[in-house]
Amino acid sequence: MDLRGRIELFGVANIFQLISQAEGTGKLVMEGESGRGRVYFHEGRLVYARTDASMERVGDVLVRQGILEAAQLEGARIQAECKDTRIGTVLVESGSLTREQLVGAIQEQISEVVYRLVTIERGSFAFYSQIYPENEDILLDVSLEFLLIEGLRKLDEFNALRPDA
């Protein structure tokens, strides 16, 4: 572990920015009241994120976006399970989905993870250098600045709607 501390001392956005500005490569683990998340960086750029909280899977994002029908997704799930491969791979290879559409859905999923992590006010974080996501075929180069600004905007909107605000 190369860096660790309490989220409430620094804030999630500042922790992300520190790793980004230091051009860090590795895995940031955050644990707080809303669960646990992992964010992966490569030379300061966010490339992947996941959370243990129940969130939409990539296939569900594609159905919600209207790119796939629920029946297509279910068929792809069955094929992926039989072939021991990923649903996205099955969908792209079958022509049901372009790689660009898959990347777009993954980017939306990663964005939602970051938005959820920005809401953590109390907890702990640890950064492990030179750790890469396992079994992930598609890594992205996501604008961290945009995600943080959007995440903080969503948090402000949520807080403004709370009855005790």
Task: Characterize this entry briefly.
The chain has about 160 residues and is of the alpha+beta class. It has helices at about 5-10, 10-20, 60-65, 70-85, 85-95, 100-120, 145-160; strands at about 5, 25-30, 35-40, 45-50, 125-130. The protein is built from 7 helices and 5 strands.
Descriptive account of the structure:
With 165 residues, the chain is an alpha+beta fold. It contains 7 helices and 5 strands; from the N terminus they run E-H-H-E-E-E-H-H-H-H-E-H. A 5-stranded antiparallel sheet has the order 1-5-2-3-4. The model has no long low-confidence stretch (mean pLDDT 84).
Number of helices: 7
The value of Rg in angstroms is: 17 Å
Number of strands: 5
What is the H-and-E element order? EHHEEEHHHHEH
**Structural class, from helix and strand content?**
alpha+beta
Low-pLDDT segments, ≥5 res: none
Mean pLDDT: 84
What is the count of structural domains? 1
**Largest sheet properties:** 5 strands, antiparallel
Bulk shape: globular
Tell me the strand order in the biggest sheet: 1-5-2-3-4
Distance between the termini: 38 Å
Strand content: 15-25%
Helix percent band:
40-55%
Fold topology:
Layout: E1 3-6, H1 7-10, H2 12-21, E2 26-32, E3 35-42, E4 45-51, H3 58-64, H4 70-83, H5 87-94, H6 99-118, E5 123-129, H7 144-161
What would the keywords be for this entry?
globular, 165 residues, alpha+beta, 7 helices, 5-stranded antiparallel beta sheet
